[in-house]
Amino acid sequence: MAASFLTELGQVLHEEHFRILSLICGLENRVAGGEGGRPIDPANAEERANLQALTVALDQIIDHNRFEESILFPLIYAGGGGDLTALLTHEHDTIGPLARHVRSLATAILDHGVDGERWDAFQSAAKDLVSEMMSHLQKEEMAVVQRLRLFLDTETDHRLAERHLAERPPTRIKIAFQ
Ligand SMILES: [Fe+2]
Ligand SMILES: [Fe+2]
Asked: Would you say residue 3 has pLDDT above 60?
């Protein structure tokens, strides 16, 4: 569905989801490949910058989920979408620790270099995160972003979109591994 059919907040969240999707697709490509792929080399300036951008982006994903849980989901719940918010919150509970785990492995590679064991752990955690995030984003786009007008009145939607843009501009989300 084209963005013009979305509410204001829908467009803001859609853009964030798109940036998160770009990030995780880049990550997926970087950790994929035959024989496990070549390890990320933190001594290489470009790879180091990507890894650093990833750690920032993972914090932003956690923060994005926090916004949804604290502001958005209660409104959807109040609008009769209790089953939906329970499912999405449950997925956040899986994604949060995974994102923190990938972040700590990325930091370990940045601080101490990469070896086979650390790379294996990073690859495996990154793949888990990518698959959880992909299905979560798909679900939220279909069930929330494109249906926001069922849950929020125009004024609430407008107010939340303005506040969100002021506090969390979508372009803050770093895209690594492009
Ligand atoms: Fe989301
Ligand atoms: Fe979410």
From this structure: no
